[in-house]
Amino acid sequence: MHITNAQNDIESILFSETQLRSRVAELGAQLTAEYADKHPIVVCILKGASFFYADLCRMMQCHISMDFIAVSSYGAGSQSSGVVRILKDLDTSITGRHVIIVEDIIDSGLTLKHLRELLSARKPASIKTVCLLDKHERHDPHIAADLCGFRIPDAFVVGYGLDYAGYYRNLPYIGVLKRAAYA
Ligand code: IMP
User: Fold this and answer.
1) What is the pLDDT of residue 180?
2) pTM higher than 0.90, yes or no?
3) What is the CATH number of the domain that holds 117?
4) Under-70 pLDDT residues of the chain
5) Is 142 within the bounds of a domain?
6) Which ligand 1 atom is at minimum distance from the Cα of 49?
7) Whose CA is nearest to atom 11 of ligand 1?
8) Contact 111, 105 (CB under 8 A)
9) Domain-embedded: residue 177
């Protein structure tokens, strides 16, 4: 698939490259202040958070370690079951460490909730969850991330790491996918 064709499938741009850069810089500054002397492990949830994670880590002006985890949701259909299976675990122990989990988007919120519980069982010093996008109307407010880039309406979005059927991750902005592209 050529990138030009990918762009033709976008209904509207929700967040431009400039808007993403500026919000990620704000989040990075906030985390820098909070974790200045804590040497946190920043955990990327593959693959959707990859671009957000790479940009956020570069905006953190303090010592950090980087690690990666890949999960898949149990159950059939497009609805998240909230029970996650680890496809690729962290390489490092998080026991006694400050952990920042970086997620792309919260829909039902169940994936992040379950992952938080799973990693909490390893007895880290603290856990903070950070997500780029939050479909806040879709879930109980009690399971929101600790830190969020943007709240968005209930639409299917792609780009900046987010995919549909494995495509569109390489778009440099966040866009709403045309219904025709997945109908
Ligand atoms: P949750 O467990 O329902 O919160 O699902 C979160 C996961 O669903 C995210 O990590 C994404 O992989 C996927 N997801 C949810 N909404 C979208 C979307 O609009 N575009 C792309 N992926 C999405």
Assistant:
1) 87
2) yes
3) 3.40.50.2020
4) 1-4, 74-82
5) yes
6) 10
7) 105
8) no
9) no
